[in-house]
Amino acid sequence: MQLSSLFASPVLLLQLCIDSLRFMFASFFSKLYYSTVYSETISSVAPAASKVHQEKDRNVMTPTSVNYHFTRKCNYKCGFCFHTAKTSFVLPLDEAKRGLKLLKESGMEKINFSGGEPFLHDRGEFLGELVQYCKQDLQLPSVSIVSNGSTIKEEWFQKYGDDLDILAISCDSFDESTNQLIGRTQGGKSHIDNLHKIRSWCQQYKVAFKINSVINTFNMYEDMTENILQLNPVRWKVFQCLLIDGENAGEKALREAERFVISEQLFQEFLERHSSVPCLVPESNEKMRNSYLILDEYMRFLDCREGRKDPSKSILDVGVKKAICFSGFDENMFLKRGGKYVWSKADMKLEW
């Protein structure tokens, strides 16, 4: 068609204008539609993705209460010990403090120092430095120790007692001959006399006193009610003897604890016999195996679910969040067994 004939026909000219306008509007609304759909899709996906990340963060375990076995060395030879002297390694003080700071930054509220025997290394000064650092520098609500009590001196309380919330002394029997059979003894010293001496120091220096007992074939029929009531600890932890391959059972173990193990029924009978003791806190093997966060001397979390101690990588190398994923820790069981309690001596309202 020639240009002259196009201009000569008003109808064709009008049709051309209408078609052009249609194309422009169609293009505009198409872009607007897809832009709106894309925005709505992104806005719906973003909260979902955010929710997934939040859920993932919630699933990261918090090291609320940690047991740091910084040494394996011990002067006792308890036949059922499940953290034996397989090495003599102890971290340098600065490295130990660095690890404790990482734990605090990840949510730790309570630290418990154990061993081996924690008062052996550097005659208790290393332990005292860690206690002081955790309370004064890290401002932890609770700092505690588990010890056999054999090497504790009053001078230690004078220097570090203010910064210690709880001192737990292991005592499996109030019969000296039974302690001898178990291996909780050294030379001619009386473990029971020492227990009472430390109890009086705790009272004098305002440290909450606790007793830990492992129930086994040598003490399962003993009635400790009168002695426990007399000592009046804030807690009396009663454990069922536990086998750990490579520690107190198996070919590579330094102990042979099979002869100490009792059945669940006998453990329950012991608990029933002591049910009148108000401070009794029972812990069966089921509760104990995966409800504790245990750090070894290299600051590796130990997974005990398979009946042995499988170490994670050290928190000093990979951080707390990565290491704790391999700990086997069951937070629900930790709470179920009463792992979180009034653990700061400032909140216990004790009569000193």
Automatic annotation (TrEMBL):
UniProt entry keywords in alphabetical sequence: 4Fe-4S, Antiviral defense, Endoplasmic reticulum, Immunity, Innate immunity, Iron, Iron-sulfur, Membrane, Metal-binding, S-adenosyl-L-methionine, Signal
Signal peptide annotation: 1-26
Annotated ranges, domain Radical SAM core: 60-280
One function term, GO molecular function aspect: metal ion binding
InterPro entries with a match to the protein in the record: Aldolase_TIM, Elp3/MiaA/NifB-like_rSAM, RSAD2, RSAD2/Viperin_antiviral, rSAM, rSAM_sf
Requisite cofactors: [4Fe-4S] cluster
An annotated GO cellular component: lipid droplet
Compartments (UniProt record): Endoplasmic reticulum membrane
Membrane topology: Peripheral membrane protein
Entry's Gene Ontology BP terms: defense response to virus; innate immune response; positive regulation of immune response
Family annotation (Gene3D superfamilies): Aldolase class I
Pfam families associated with the record: Radical_SAM (PF04055)
Keyword flag 4Fe-4S: yes
Keyword DNA-binding: no
CDD domains: Radical_SAM
Family the entry assigns: Belongs to the radical SAM superfamily. RSAD2 family.
Name of this protein: S-adenosylmethionine-dependent nucleotide dehydratase RSAD2
Gene behind this protein: RSAD2
